[in-house]
Amino acid sequence: MTLKKTAKTLTISLLFALVAIPVAGQDLLARQAPVDRRAKKLDSIEIRSVVARENMQSPAALLYGDDWNNQYAHRATELPDSFVINLRHFCMPTPSRVVTSNFGSRWGRQHKGLDIKVYIGDTIRSAFNGKVRIVKYERRGYGNYVVIRHPNGLETIYGHLSKHLVKENQVVRAGEPIGLGGNTGRSTGSHLHFETRLCGVALNPALFFDFRNQDVVADQVLFSKDSYQKESTIATRERGKVGNGGYTRDQIYGTPGHSADLASTAVRNTINQPERVYYKVLKGDTLESIASKVGVTVDKLCRLNGYRRNQAIRPGQIIRYI
User: Fold this and answer.
1) How far is CA 20 from the centre of its chain?
2) What confidence category does residue 190 fall into, taking pLDDT thresholds of 50, 70 and 90?
3) How confident is the model at residue 257 (pLDDT cuts 50, 70, 90)?
4) Residue 54 phi, psi dihedral angles, 5° rounding
5) How far is it, in rounded angstroms, from Cα 126 to Cα 133?
6) Cβ atoms 290, 315 nearer than 8 A
7) Which residue from 175, 138, 204 is spatially nearest to 272, judged by alpha carbons?
8) CB contact set of 72 (below 8 Å; sequence gap of 6+)
9) Which contacts (CB < 8 Å, 24+ apart) does range 229-237 have?
10) What secondary structure does DSSP assign to 203-250, as a single string?
């Protein structure tokens, strides 16, 4: 009888133990869940922080995402309500101070950029760091032209060139030669047709550049969807006077051994100014494929990011390449 009671007691104890195991497991999971949520929250905060830093350095990623196309010069999309455009680390596309035609209505149609007097063969330079999206010829329009997308969100267009000096998908620095002045396409004389666009929408370059004074208007400009057209009219009035403004040709283009040398020094200083530019890793990317896309070496990626050559990377990761 005692043996039967002992067996019965052991059986009941075993059943309780078996039932208690999943309950204890559930208790453990319940206790672990808040920890996991906190960890996930911290991870999300860090990710958001990295993305925010990336967008500060490269707001173009916020505006355009993965939209990269070598087929069209521009395609208007929805403008942001407001957007801060960083104009630091710039280079004037040409040392010419002569505006020959302003942004706006001209001959019954809209002129979408500024025309700047240059001569055939004059060096045209990239206004900011960026990546060349288009290198093409358009007989009834831009002629030979280049479109560059910049990390600050702007795209710049350089038209009527006599020669291209860059290729599509090439990464360029501010001040790097991208073409030579010319008279190709729909043009009545040698000049640079210069456009600035945001989300494909043409904005008056005078909102950003003062060619007469060879400078940008500020370190940064706050674009406002509600007021940019009014501000464009004001910018033309303040900075868009057509003509040479009393400057001599030497003052405009530099005299050998003096102004030209100063201009070259300014260009070198602009190119050497530090600016960080980032790439967001896509599915299937490797360090080798990223290096090829952005036009740098794997060794440079490793040096800038503290990586090994066999470093594992994941989609969404932020990698500096400049």
Assistant:
1) 59
2) very high
3) very low
4) -65, -45
5) 13
6) no
7) 175
8) 134
9) 231/207, 232/103, 232/104, 232/203, 232/204, 232/206, 232/207, 233/104, 235/204, 235/206, 235/207, 236/102, 236/103, 236/104, 236/204, 236/206
10) E-GGGTEETTTTEES-SEEEEETTTHHHHHHHHHHHH---B-TT--HH
Mean pLDDT of 69-95: 92
The model's pLDDT over 110-157, given as tens digits with 9 standing for 90+, comes to: 889 999 999 999 999 999 999 999 999 999 899 999 999 999 999 999
pLDDT-above-70 percentage for the chain: 71
Nearest residue to 121 (alpha-carbon basis) of 57, 182, 192: 182
Could you give the CA distance from residue 140 to residue 134 in angstroms, rounded to a whole number?
17
Which band of pLDDT confidence, cut at 50, 70 and 90, is reported for residue 315?
Answer: confident
Backbone phi, psi, residue 186, to 5°: -80, 85
Higher-confidence residue: 291 or 159?
159
> 199 — phi, psi (to 5°)?
55, 35
The 10 Å Cβ neighbour count of residue 285 is: 17
Q: Whose CA is closest to 87, among 248, 238, 203?
A: 203
In angstroms, the CA 204 to CA 233 distance is 9
Task: Classify residue 100 by its DSSP letter.
Answer: E
Residue type, 56: M
Residue 132, pLDDT score: 96
